[in-house]
Design goal:
single chain, 394 residues, alpha/beta, Rossmann fold, Structural Genomics Hypothetical 15.5 Kd Protein In mrcA-pckA Intergenic Region, Chain A, 6-stranded mixed beta sheet, 15 helices, 14% strand, globular, protein biosynthesis, RNA binding, Tyrosine--tRNA ligase, tyrosine-tRNA ligase activity, aa-tRNA-synth_I_CS
Length: 394
């Protein structure tokens, strides 16, 4: 269960010993995940590590969801080619409020320990910080890829950035962590926890890194900036349709990293597909599981029905109602202007490009004439597979 989908487990032999010790003593292991509230919400790519936490939680271990309200004031330099601007206390507090609410859609709130690293980082004080900094060398810190590359490129590195991995490592000391999870980009910070625990006379934690989830395009990692993501607060219909849009190859990767089905269940499903079953059946099952997790079973049922309706050219039961005014003389409105005014296209020009691509329908008929003008009345306007509006011109 620990190894499923993981990138690295370091050192694996120590983790086996910890599991054996836990089983013999009846004491659950302490498993830590730290997240800095740098943004107000998360996408399903962020839940890959949360899923692993839930799997270990279901095995009876203690999971600690650590909100890095102190470390966020420093700014994580991982993977950065410039200094990350620190957030204000107000921004951090606002983001932290939504983080755990969203994480609770994956973790069992009743069995999750919630901590904030300001609990022990603020009382550390200047003297404690200097003593902590004495436990690691500048030479070792400069082995870190992002610091090494920035130094040799002549890009500035602020002294406070060296404090980030030290403070994240100190979290493991404060929490007496047995295992810390993170993305592959966090390996240096996670290893720092092992080092500092040994310095403080504790048994060093093991570290488990999870791969970064590929987005909808199947190429780049899931990212809002690349618009290849599924937000966990997105509408059920949109979430369901986006999962169905991924490739058949990417689907199995998502099954491993996002599904709570056992590996045996996934293998059986994959064998059925290889034996001739339509891969869409497996993708629908995945879309249902993910949509139900972040909404409800009923919402997943409705989203599946909505997708089926759209596939057949049908109109969803609920679509936005838009009222638009014609010119004072009652002259008809051009289709490009209507698409922009109804919020179905960013501009009239984009609307025209959508028409050229055959992506616009009015009352289920494909629009091929960019010069189309619509008189007063009510029309169901569709752009692509997922955008609809019932537009009333008057």
């Amino acid at each position: 269960m620990t190894l499923r989908g993981c990138d690295e487990l370091i050192p694996q032999a120590d983790w086996v010993k910890k599991l054996q010790k836990s089983e013999a003593s009846g004491e659950p292991l302490r498993i830590k995940l730290g997240l800095d509230p740098t943004a107000p919400d998360i996408h399903i790519g962020h839940t890959v590590v949360l899923n692993k936490m839930r799997q270990l939680q279901d095995l009876g271990h203690t999971v600690i969801f650590l909100i890095g309200d102190f470390t966020t004031t420093i700014g994580d330099p991982s993977g950065r080619n410039s200094t990350r601007p620190p957030l204000t206390r107000e921004q951090i507090e606002a983001n932290a409020q939504t983080y755990y609410k969203q994480a609770s859609l994956v973790l069992d709130p009743a069995r999750t320990e919630i901590r904030y690293n300001s609990e022990w980082s603020d009382p550390l004080g200047t003297r404690g910080l200097i003593q902590l900094a004495a436990k690691y060398t500048v030479a070792r810190m400069m082995e870190r890829n992002d610091f090494h590359d920035r130094f040799h490129a002549g890009t500035p590195i602020s002294v406070h950035e060296f404090l980030y991995p030290l403070m994240q490592g100190y979290d493991s000391v404060a929490l007496k962590s047995d295992l810390e999870l993170g993305g592959t980009d966090q390996k240096f910070n996670l290893l720092m926890g092992r080092h500092l625990q040994a310095e403080y006379g504790q048994e060093p934690q093991c570290i488990l890194t999870m791969p970064l989830l590929e987005g909808l395009d199947g190429v780049e990692k899931m990212s809002k900036s690349k618009n290849n993501y599924i937000g966990i607060s997105e509408e059920p219909n949109t979430m369901f349709a986006k999962v169905l849009s991924i490739s058949d190859v990417l689907m199995w990767r998502w099954y491993t990293l996002l599904s709570f089905k056992s590996e045996a269940e996934i293998a059986a499903l994959k064998a059925e597909v290889e034996g001739g079953r339509n891969p869409k059946d497996a993708k629908v099952a995945l879309a249902r599981e993910i949509t139900a997790r972040f909404h409800s079973t009923q919402a997943a049922d409705a989203a599946e029905q909505d997708f089926a309706n759209r596939s057949k050219g049908g109109v969803p039961d609920e679509i936005p109602e838009v009222q638009l005014a014609l010119a004072e003389d009652g002259a008809p409105m051009g289709i490009g202007a209507l698409l922009k005014a109804a919020g179905l296209a960013a501009s009239s020009g984009e609307g025209n490009r959508l028409i050229d691509g055959g992506g616009v329908r009015v009352d289920s008929s494909v629009v091929s004439d960019k010069g189309l003008k619509l008189a007063a009345g009510t029309y169901v306007v569709q752009v692509g597979k997922r955008k609809f509006a019932r537009v009333t011109l008057g």
